[in-house]
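sanity check both lines:
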Amino acid sequence: MEIKGVVTSGYGRGAYFLAQEFYKSKFNQYCGFTPFPGTLNISVSEEFLEDIKKLKHNCKNVIKSKKGFGGVKYIKATLNNDISGAIVFPDKTSHEENYLEFIAKDNLRKKLNLEDGDFTIIKINID
């Protein structure tokens, strides 16, 4: 599945959670990388919302919560045909349904020189 979107600024909360050793070790174990402490936020158009809802609902990949931290679902994905990572669906989020949060080992804004408004393509690795 391929989803097109636009880079947008987030709230900055993802950095805190992804810096926690608990999440870092679990993503390394399950996804094969230690995530950069922050998410790349991507706004998607309404045409993709049903697909995203189905992905989230059917997702079996879960990192369970631990002492005050929420759980998170994740799906391996590729950004712009180049960057391996994952889309995350945190239990606790303030984002609207049309936002996806992409994680990878690198700071993607710097590595890919991304700014708000830049277009992206996410390929979902559905097993």
Notes: The chain has one domain: 2-124.
